[in-house]
């Protein structure tokens, strides 16, 4: 049975549904739905705001995306701080990764295997194929997504994915479980293709699942395994083909290590003794210092943060950004500015450092008007515009950009209220900007109404 599923002949059974459809077009109902729930999670208190982590994740996905058949090679990404270990996708090319997942992943190739698996679910149009069955099934899927989002926003430690993954494809009802297992086989097979084409170890997927299986021995099941139902042949493959990898084959792990340390620092911030957790999870001393300094910043422990910041390596992107943040937080603007100016002299387009710079006019109109910006980049630009409006004491634009920000976090009614208040105090020049923001928000709301998604 397993051989039949992985044979070349079986590949012809996979329909390439809507292969040329823009996954991120506003005319695509899946994207409208995914964007709605993405905004909800974006507004969760568990959403991680650390731009260098998103920069890395975007570059990691870029190693795989050229080898997919996705029409749009942009994936909207979100990072959630959680005690749970999971990753999931939303329709319309949205992907989420939980911070605790990095406690299970120790090298970049294994992370790429995870990302490849999630990309495969999107590439194979699993949500679209599931929702084709009936309107009743589609409505049920939307309700399950909503239940998961509500759980996350209520503070359930980001445990949205149990109800959220692929709009309910992972529903544990027996009559649907076998269907989702078939999809897991499809995703496994497709992910392996990506890895081979990208020159990445194809056995990394086996290593990934073997790590998860080991983690379940004598413990509660890992969330990723419950939301990704296990085909019987996957366990056998993971147990029998786990490769012995050479460290030399993994290449430079510096950027991955910084990403891993970042997410584990956020994970540690949820604990009573974060330093002990960090030392148990991170072997490199300099990365331990970085993670501890980030926890201190998250917890607003200025004294500890400043002490650890002295040991940070500013030649590394993440650590330079963190040190600048810590110095700004402590009022040491000149020291922070030296780091920021140096980084921008190397690359003037680094939005993360542009935001930290006291000269907010470093943001060019070209950067702010790009069409295919990801949400974390839009967040930075919106915060810069808001700061500019506040510095100019422009109440109308302050309210308008606040509206744009709260709407991106799923607060539609609050956004509309802020826009009304902005219009009330605006002059003619301000109204041009306000109307543009209003048109953008209203068009999204109207599209959601057309897809029977109610304004919150």
Task: Give an overview in words.
- It is a single chain.
- The protein has 456 residues and is mostly helical.
- The protein has 3 domains: 2-250, no CATH class; 254-349; 366-450, no CATH class.
- The chain is built from 24 helices and 3 strands.
- The protein has helices spanning 2-5, 8-11, 29-42, 51-62, 108-123, 126-131, 135-153, 161-164, 174-197, 204-216, 223-227, 232-240, 254-268, 274-281, 285-298, 302-309, 317-329, 333-346, 351-356, 365-368, 375-391, 395-408, 412-424, 428-450, and strands at 76-80, 87-90, 94-98.
- The protein has a 3-stranded mixed beta sheet with strand order 1-3-2, with helices on both faces.
- It is globular and about 65 Å long.
- The N and C termini lie far apart (47 Å).
Provide tags for this entry.
single chain, 456 residues, mainly alpha, 24 helices, disordered N terminus
Question: Layout of helices and strands, plus pairs?
Answer:
Elements: H1 2-5, H2 8-11, H3 29-42, H4 51-62, E1 76-80, E2 87-90, E3 94-98, H5 108-123, H6 126-131, H7 135-153, H8 161-164, H9 174-197, H10 204-216, H11 223-227, H12 232-240, H13 254-268, H14 274-281, H15 285-298, H16 302-309, H17 317-329, H18 333-346, H19 351-356, H20 365-368, H21 375-391, H22 395-408, H23 412-424, H24 428-450
How would you concisely characterize the structure shown here?
The chain is mostly helical.
């Amino acid at each position: 049975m397993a051989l039949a599923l992985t044979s070349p002949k079986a590949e012809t059974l996979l329909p390439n549904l809507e292969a040329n459809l823009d996954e991120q077009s506003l005319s695509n109902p899946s994207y409208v739905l995914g964007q709605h729930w993405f905004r909800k999670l974006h507004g969760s208190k568990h959403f991680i705001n650390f731009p260098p982590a998103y920069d890395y994740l975007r570059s990691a996905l870029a190693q795989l995306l050229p080898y997919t058949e996705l029409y749009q090679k942009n994936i909207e990404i979100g990072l959630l701080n959680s005690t749970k270990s999971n990753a999931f996708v939303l329709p319309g090319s949205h992907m989420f990764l939980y911070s605790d997942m990095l406690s299970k992943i120790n090298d970049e190739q294994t992370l790429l295997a995870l990302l490849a698996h999630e990309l495969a679910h999107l590439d194979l149009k699993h949500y679209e194929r599931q929702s084709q069955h009936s309107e009743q099934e589609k409505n049920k899927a939307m309700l399950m997504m909503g239940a998961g989002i509500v759980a996350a926003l209520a503070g359930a430690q980001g445990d949205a994915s149990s109800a959220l993954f692929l709009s309910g494809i992972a529903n544990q009802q027996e009559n649907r479980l076998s269907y989702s297992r078939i999809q897991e086989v499809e995703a496994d097979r497709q992910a392996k293709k990506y890895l081979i084409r990208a020159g990445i170890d194809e056995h990394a997927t086996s290593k990934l699942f073997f790590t998860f299986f080991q983690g379940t021995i004598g413990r509660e099941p890992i969330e990723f395994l419950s939301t990704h139902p296990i085909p019987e042949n996957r366990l056998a493959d993971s147990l029998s083909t786990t490769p012995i990898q050479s460290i030399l084959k993994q290449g430079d792990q510096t950027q991955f290590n910084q990403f891993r340390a970042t997410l584990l620092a956020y994970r540690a911030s949820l604990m009573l003794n974060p330093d002990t957790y960090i030392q148990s999870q991170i072997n490199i001393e300099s990365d331990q210092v970085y993670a501890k300094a980030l926890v201190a910043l998250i917890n607003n422990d200025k004294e500890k943060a400043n002490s650890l910041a002295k040991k940070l390596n500013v030649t590394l992107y993440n650590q330079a950004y963190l040190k600048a943040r810590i110095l700004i937080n402590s009022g040491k603007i000149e020291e922070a500015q030296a780091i920021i100016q140096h980084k921008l002299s190397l690359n003037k387009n680094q939005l993360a450092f542009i935001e930290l710079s006291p000269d907010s006019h470093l943001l060019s109109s070209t950067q702010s008007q790009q069409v295919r910006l990801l949400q974390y980049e839009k967040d930075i630009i919106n915060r810069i515009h808001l700061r500019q409006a506040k510095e100019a004491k422009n109440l109308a634009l302050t309210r308008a950009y606040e509206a744009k920000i709260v709407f991106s976090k799923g607060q539609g009614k609050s956004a509309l209220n802020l826009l009304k208040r902005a219009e009330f105090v605006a002059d003619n020049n301000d109204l041009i900007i306000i109307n543009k923001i209003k048109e953008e928000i209203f068009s999204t709301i109207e599209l959601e109404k057309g897809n029977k998604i109610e304004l919150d």
